[in-house]
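This entry is set out below.
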Amino acid sequence: MSSTEIYGVKINGDVVFVGETDNAWTGAMHVWSKLSQKYGVDGGIFGGFEGLWEMANQGKLNEHECIAVRSTFDNVIVKKEELPMLIDAYLEYDKELSNSSLLEQVVIITDQLLNNEEMRGVCWNQTSVNSNPWADYDEEKDEEVPYNIFEGERHWFLNTN
């Protein structure tokens, strides 16, 4: 079964695996489908969630919903100082639309990242079915190496304010 993989950004910029929740369908897909239903926008198993994503980027959802949706986007990183807002958003989301993996993610983020001085943020691979987006390939070493936020350019930071 697929999982939602959670990664931490270390002080040196390397992105490393820190935990996972079972069943990726209870992560991003839960958020997208439940909020699409709530707001009456298109979206389903084969895509079409662009309307919801636009609403989140334009601030047309409740604040906690915007944070929850935007945290599921590709290549997003939430900085450590923003983790309390992310956690609050996930907890608020779960009060209204339960049965997602967001509560499990809160536990991992709190235990592995929030109080860990070696970590500076969190990011995700929303489904383990695809390849690790937080890895690069070092041709010189002929091996996979962690993506580094100080060297790479494909990430972006979520502002929860």
The chain has one domain: 3-157. The chain has a mean pLDDT of 94.
